[in-house]
Design goal:
The protein is α+β, with helices and mostly antiparallel strands. The protein contains four helices and eight strands; from the N terminus they run ββααββββαββα. Helix content is about 40%, strand content about 30%.
Length: about 190
């Protein structure tokens, strides 16, 4: 999610997303820009008007005798509950990276509740910066004028290996410089 949710890369006293407490560095991802909240509001407005438009027929179908129509009505009702809830959960996603000495903790939170936590000991290993490029596109292969902006450059991943040798993604970004700064910041603590 590092391509959407940006992680702070420099210490700044004014930034509430980066803290040092008892020699422990704590980084939290930034939220989405306000324009995305406008998109969410527009989606919710459309869903609200859709619900208003189908409320009476949906209630008739749910109270009806036909079993197949009742199941379809339950599916539609479930869609109108689960869809907006999942979309809202995406907006309240947050990743927290915490490091002190050789101990690194990466927490993923939704609605401020941790749902996935990786705890790593970095005693015999280091944080690695890798470049990931699935496949170059036609703009790279043909090298035509005016196509430079359409080239697929991939992105950079900051990873560490856990005790079983599995790669744990710390963060990712399209800019190598930002990942280098984040790596050097994590190496200081």
């Amino acid at each position: 999610m590092g391509l959407v949710f940006q992680t702070p890369i420099e210490l700044n006293d004014l930034d509430d997303r980066i803290k040092v407490v008892d020699e422990r560095l704590i980084l939290r991802t930034y939220g989405l820009p306000m324009i995305f909240w406008g998109y969410l509001l527009a989606v919710f407005a459309v869903l609200f008007f859709m619900i208003l438009a189908i409320k009476a027929p949906l209630m008739t179908v749910l109270k009806g005798d036909d079993q197949i129509n009742r199941i379809l009505g339950i599916c539609v009702l479930t869609l109108f509950i689960v869809g907006p809830s999942a979309l809202l959960a995406f907006y309240f996603y947050e990743k927290e990276i915490s490091k002190k000495g050789y101990q690194l903790i990466v927490k993923h939170k939704v609605f401020f509740i941790p749902f996935k936590t990786h705890s790593l000991s970095l005693e015999n290993q280091e944080i690695l910066l890798e470049h990931f490029l699935d496949s170059p596109n036609m703009a790279v292969q043909e090298q035509r004028d005016g196509m430079k902006g359409f080239e697929n450059r991939g992105y950079f991943k900051l990873i560490a290996k856990n005790q079983s040798g599995k790669d744990i993604l710390i963060d990712r970004n399209g800019r190598r410089g930002e990942m280098k700064k984040l790596k050097s910041l994590l190496d200081k603590y």
